Amino acid sequence: MRKKRRYKKLRWKPAILAFLILLGISSACLLLFGNSNTKSATKQATKSEKIVTKKAPVQKASAKKPPKKASEKPKPVTEKTVFLTFDDGPSPFLSRFTNLLQQEKVPATFFFIGENLNRIQPETAKAILASGSNIGWHSMTHDASLLYRKNSPTFLAEMEQARALGREKLGITSNLIRAPYGSTYLSSALHQETKDKGFTLLDWNIDSNDWRYKTNSARVVETVLHQANALAKQKEPLVILMHERKNTLEALPAIIHALKKNGYSFQAYKENTPFKLNFREH
């Protein structure tokens, strides 16, 4: 009986031993693969973290200054300098004026009315400046009854509005202005306020009368050249008042050719031009 019991005990020992061996192997496998997975997950997490935390390279601001515009340095003005100026635009004739000026290789100055700025695209305005011509403002309304009225004249407010609109719609900044019908109508106080606001005011010394001779371009040519001859004796630069009209467009080539023949050179009027002409100060 004792032998039988002893035999039974001995019979269970291998089974227990085998079970313990299998348990040990399983534990070792779990430990091995667990560590491997943990390391893999850690590596993956580290890699992901690097991707997330990696910053895009920051572009440094260029220390190089933009090139100065040629217009920043004023050109000398002599008695043989002429400034062609065109008021009341932009008009449907604007592109024809700019094309003609480019063909003749002469610049000009355009004074735009704020209410007309919807007729021009920013690219056109910038092309005018790039060609060597210039742009100024001619009020918002061109209405003398508002601009120069005794109580609350709108002149300065309209010029400021036109300047702001030009910056907003066309992307250009200009402080050059021309008073509709001339600065004669400005009071002394309003004239001073205009200067205080940083505006440069330009009038004229030749009136082409193109607004009068609407269907007679020959008379426009005659009128301009007659006044030019008179001013030549006074040795003054010429500032010619014209408008964006069809008759003016027809008269312009003859005016340009005659002035060139008489030794005149053409400039666009700029804010820093070393020649001032306005009726309030002359």
Features of the shown structure:
282 residues, alpha/beta, TIM Barrel, two-stranded parallel ribbon, globular, NODB_dom, Glyco_hydro/deAcase_b/a-brl, NodB homology domain-containing protein, hydrolase activity, acting on carbon-nitrogen (but not peptide) bonds, Polysacc_deacetylase_ArnD
Structural features, described:
With 282 residues, the protein is an alpha/beta fold. It has a domain at 76-267: Glycoside hydrolase/deacetylase (TIM Barrel, Alpha-Beta Barrel). It has helices at residues 2-53, 94-104, 122-130, 144-147, 155-170, 188-196, 217-234, 246-261, and strands at 81-89, 109-112, 134-137, 176-177, 200-201, 206-207, 238-243, 265-267. Strands 1, 2, 3, 6, 7 and 8 form a six-stranded parallel sheet that branches. The chain has a two-stranded parallel sheet with strand order 4-5. Helix 6 (188-196) links the parallel strand 4 (176-177) and strand 5. The protein is globular. Mean pLDDT is 83; it is low at 1-10 and 28-70.
Short précis:
One of its GO terms (biological process) is carbohydrate metabolic process. With 282 residues, the chain is of the alpha/beta class.
* Helix/strand/pairing category: alpha/beta
Largest sheet: 6 strands, parallel
> What is Rg?
41 Å
Fraction in helix: 40-55%
Number of helices: 8
Overall, the morphology is globular
The counted number of beta strands is 8
The helix-strand sequence is: HEHEHEHHEHEEHEHE
Q: How far apart are the first and last residues' alpha carbons, in Å?
A: 145 Å
CATH superfamily of the domain at 76-267: Glycoside hydrolase/deacetylase
The appropriate CATH architecture of the domain at 76-267 is: Alpha-Beta Barrel
Q: What is the name of the CATH class of the domain at 76-267? A: Alpha Beta
Strand content: 5-15%
Indicate the low-confidence ranges by residue numbers: 1-10, 28-70
Look at the structure and give the mean pLDDT: 83
CATH topology assignment of the domain at 76-267 = TIM Barrel
